[in-house]
Amino acid sequence: MLNKGRKTAFTASLVAMAWASCSQAQAQTTTAPADGTAAAEPAAEAIVVSGYRLQNQRSISAKRNADTISEFVTADDAGQNPDYNIADALRRVPGVSAVFDEDEGRYAAVRGLNPDYTLVTFNGLQLASSDQASRRVLIEQVPASAVARMEVVKSLTPAHDGNAIGGLVDLQTRSAFDTNGTYLAGQALVGYYDSNNVPGKGAPSYRADATLTTRFGPDDVFGIMLTGSYMERTRDQERLIIASNSYFTASGVAATDPLNQDVTSVPNGGLFLNYALNSKRWGGSGALEYKPDGNFYASLYYGRYTQDDDETRYSVTLTPASTPVITGPNTGSVATASATINTSQFVISKPVDVAQARIEWDNDQTSIKLGGSLSQSRWDEIGPGASFSSGNRSQIGYSYDTTGVPTYSFNDPAYFSNTANYNFTSASSSDFNVREQVRAVKGDVRHSLDSMWQIGAGAAYKSAERTVDREAPSWTSSTPRTLDQFDRTESYTPPYGTAPLPMVDRELFWDYLYGNPGAFTQAQRGNSALTGDYRFKEDVTAIYGLVEARGDRFHFIGGGRYEWTDVNVDRYALVNGIIDPVADANDYGDFLPSALISYDLTPAFKLRAAYSRSLGRPNQTDLAGGETRTETAGIVNVSRPNPTLKPRRADNFDISAEYYFAGNSGILSAGVFHKNIKDEIFRGVTQVVDGPLTYVFSEPQNLESAKLTGLELSAVMNSLPFLPPALSGLGVSVNYTIIKTDAAIVMANGTRRDVDQLIDQPKHMFNASVFYKDSWFEGRVSYSRPGVSYQALSTASPLQDLLYQPFNQLDAQIRIKLTDQVQFVAEGRNLLGESRDTRYAVYDEVREINQHGRGFWAGLSFRY
């Protein structure tokens, strides 16, 4: 029997490390000046800081000098970031998590709020995104080596874009003026993934990147920056998905109220989904810069980064056709079932282009910054697939065991594996194109009134336009065809199966279909094909003003920003089978005040407090997309988007305390934040009576609110002074975040359900790194554990709520000095071999097991 409810535990004992002993470092005579630079050592040989220590020192210095409450990830002297993926690198700082796509981060989420609440900018200007359904910005295709620094802004000022309830992530590019003379750095590595059981391309993986900066012209006033990268990796994934469960009482009768009865859970079949992936990422950037003196700077920048995926998916869907026989809490059998065999190919291209121009001028009293950006992102996908079915057969019946990793044993394994027992049902392709273009300009002016006071003003405009075009061609055949005609022939048994899977050779099938078009019937393109297409345009105009005061020990910024938003949507409505074009428009304005103050209690101890109001504009699919209307007996059911939605609005409060060790060699910090979010968006139902007709509208609505309170703790030490001299090269970095949430969702029946987490929001986030460096060797071991978070909150029933399970990721890297310019580099990723699993929230059943294995890389890095 299963008992309702579930308790989860999180162990964070590493957070209780004995940092008090580190305070001995402050007893030294050398102290760090308030500006973050290291004080000069009396008559001592200069210490050269490099590698992981330099990354930490740069990040700590940037945090110390920042006007806002922020976190930073920086490159080291060899141009290397701690991870080759930007989202993976960002998740190592306090309060930031990565939302994963299989084995790596795809999006960044700040302070537990899902990536829809995070604004991503490139040198301060918004980056376009082609995510299929939301505003979250795809950053997986941009390598970490393409940027010099990543900044996570947690407390906004009037100069920041207001659409960042969670926070703002700014990716800052390299400059030829970052170093003196010519700088050339790069790396080339070969990789291997131990997840290679699924039939497909099992070739080695490769990655390489390089960065060149140099200055030229009279007095080196001109600079150029060039970067390039290429990565190709092959791996597979083995997934088991249990899409739903049925519940039975002790007497074997279907439960009528499973939330309030003692029940046994039975999986409604299962989906075996296994695929081989070949992924290529390539791109580069270039910048021409001009800096004649310390007062003027201008640059032109262009970058293009692309990810191209070719993925072949082999799936088997088991569907029970008889009442299950329950033999134990986790075991049972189904006498008759059907199996549907499908093989599909997903060919996906996700390019992003960015062109920017920037000018900065400063005469020590007045400064002006101007910037313009054109950014475009696309998601182009075709997904052809072919399906074959066994029909209901006793031989396909199975017994199941959901203990640990669920397994399925077939009544007749040979029958299940025999491709001659499966008949062709249909072929189809899911094809779509998403294109978003963002044009943005901004200008900022600051003027100093005296040595303390400064005033500032600015304006910004951005126009985001997104188009979505979907097609779904399909084919059937009146002539019986069996799978053995298109058998892939390899023998492959997944970890959760007990018999080889029947598999379609996709190339053989599609060659046959296109070579014999008369043998298949293609479905006519109906009106419903247009309901997923739309054009979305959003224009935002902003102005701001601020006052800034800076003293010997304090810094204050306060002011307000006003943003006007205009939304225009072109979409389609399907009304009783007839397609109609629909045009919608909406506009609104918001005043966004903010204030931030910092105070240095001592040269090493800084306090900060901040308040800001921010926005979370609705996702494009909430504002645009398809609409359907059907009328039955005077009831008109309408399912549609809602272009009149208001944005989410949040009041944000922050306080932090930061203690800096000498020379920015370490930091202890603690911060508390609170967010009060109003007008959260859920799909609601309303009724309107118009004469003889009753309209029932199902559409997104501003229905609820949420409150989040969090604690962020962080400690970084480049060395541990209490250790003996032989271990002077040992350092650590630890951070922990805990978030308490008070929120509610609106159920499909209109009732309200309280929840203590939002989607993609872990309650706990923990990161730790131990690193060591001596004259020829450098190594780092990193551990990351995001806690339980919701993958889905169902508005139908809590039984359908899905939880991401904690994921314990252990990574390692070593660097061995071969010459002054060349290092040997070796990396290991997900060394624990953890799978990314999802479970149902109420009764803790497995929803998904996703195994993607370990990754290993080795090669050379260089710097000249």
Structure in a nutshell:
The protein is mainly beta and 864 residues long. The protein is built from five helices and 46 strands. A hairpin with a 5-residue loop joins strand 44 and strand 45.
Give short descriptive properties of this protein.
mainly beta, 33-stranded mixed β-sheet, 5-stranded mixed β-sheet, 5 helices, 56% strand
Annotation, overall tally of beta strands? 46
Secondary structure class reads mainly beta
| Helical content band | under 10%
Q: How widely separated are the two ends?
A: 66 Å
Give the overall average pLDDT.
89
Q: Return residue spans where pLDDT drops below 50 for at least 5 consecutive residues.
A: 1-48
Describe the global form.
globular
Task: Provide the gyration radius in Å.
Answer: 29 Å
